[in-house]
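[AMINO ACID CHAIN]
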Amino acid sequence: MLLLSSDAADATALNMVLLLYRQLSFSENSNSGSSHPPKRLTDADLIKMKSEIRDICGSFRLGTCFSRTQTKSGNKDVERWCAVKEDVILQLSRRVKELSRGASRAAAQTVTTPPSSSIPASSSSPSLSSPSSTSVSSASSSSSTSLSSPTSSSLPTSPISDTSLPNPRTVALGQKWADAHMQAESALSAMLHNRLRDVVFNAVLISSYPGRDLTNGCRPVASLDLSASLAPGNAANPGPPSMSGLEPLSDEIRTLVEKISVLALIHMNAYLPMYEKEGFRPSSSS
């Protein structure tokens, strides 16, 4: 049970980080001042970011941020959480900057690309160009090539440029958001935990509840396919409302459902006959 609780806390914390990723992306696009519509994050972007977050965390469990011992100084988990939190926020801010820069570049290319009808007819006519002008232009191009400094092309370029650095304002906003919400007393974390609990609980009921059948005492229940909402071209068939926003966590939810379903089936096989005995549960009339 303790392991299942830790898994649920990790999934809740991961959901909060992805929610922060959405909010930082929206904030960056809103503050850019561009008149073009911002690039919306897709499920593929969120799943890619989820993989990067797991790589940053390594063996550290994100759900540790909800521990009551986080307020104690000198705790190694507190120091590790602070380091992991800063690394995760930097990665989120970097990806947000890349998304914003990619959207601006695509919009600029759309605006600056001239239509084919605007090309003058004289430029496509070969008869208007004289041999002398051709020779002069080739000579000037060759001379400019020979005058260029050989050392300028051989200088190595820095792998990190100013354009790839995250926005300090975005980093500060992410740190402030994580400090306020990713802790035990947060109302937002409690709400997201309850939403995850409801989704997992309903899925466990569907997959493991022993419905009665006249022949063998149980009726088979179809397994819950949480990846259906992630399939391409399935926009006309969205998942249940309770799964809204949790689609990128389908793998984590499926793992929780499978583990809890096995535990529930073991418990029901052992204690169901006792629960069904008449008089086990006192009637409301008495």
Notes: The chain is about 60% helix and 0% strand. The chain has one domain: 2-112+164-276. The CA atoms of residues 227 and 233 lie 13 Å apart. Confidence is low (pLDDT under 50) at residues 117-131, 139-153, 212-224, 228-241.
